[in-house]
Amino acid sequence: MTSNELEDALGDAEDAFQRTPEIPETGLEYVTESSVIQLRKACRLLDAAGFLLERNGHFTVIIESSFVAIERSIQFYVQEKGYDVAAQRHTEVYELAVQAGLFSEDIADRLEALWLENRSESYYRTGIAGEYRAETVYQLASKLHDEVVELTRTHDCICD
C-alpha cells in the first residue's frame, strides 16, 4: 500500500462485500435460481448498454456489457435445458448452446471469433471502440436475449 487513504478504501471495499446489502439491486434480490440470476444480469447489462448508447459515448463499456449480456443470456438458456455451466471459459458457453440446440455450430464459431477478435481488442484497448461497433454488438446482444426469452417462454426477464 502506498497511502493510508488507499488502505482505508481497500478495507471499506473488503468490508462491503462481507455485508448483506442494505439496498439490494431491484430484480436481483431474493433470486436463488442460478439460471434466472444469469438472465436478469443480462437484462441489467443490456439496460446499462442501451442507456450509455443514448448518451452517445462509453463505447468500450457498451461493447463489454453487450458481450457479457450475450454470454449470460446463453448461460440462462443452457441451464434451463439442464446443462451445467460451472467453471466454464467465456467462449465455452457457445459450444454448450450448440449442444442445447440454441444455434448452429457455424453461429457458435462466428460468435466465438467475434468475441476473441473484438471483445478483447476493445477491452484491452489494442483496438479503438466506436459508435457503430457498439451499436451493432448491442443490437446482436438484444436480439439474442429476446430470442432466448421467447424460446424459453420465461417470465423471469426484467427488461422493459
Which secondary structure elements does this structure contain, and how are they paired or packed?
Layout: H1 4-16, H2 34-54, H3 59-80, H4 92-99, H5 105-123, H6 131-152
Helix pairs in contact: 2-3, 2-6, 3-4, 3-5, 3-6, 4-5
Short description:
This protein is mostly helical and 160 residues long. Helix content is 66%, strand content 0%. It has helices spanning 4-16, 34-54, 59-80, 92-99, 105-123, 131-152.
C-alpha end-to-end distance: 44 Å
- Which class of secondary structure composition applies to the elements? mainly alpha
Helix percentage range: 55-70%
Largest sheet: none
* Mean pLDDT figure: 89
- Indicate the overall shape: globular
Could you give the count of β-strands? 0
Query: How many helices in DSSP terms?
Result: 6
Q: Bin the strand percentage.
A: under 5%
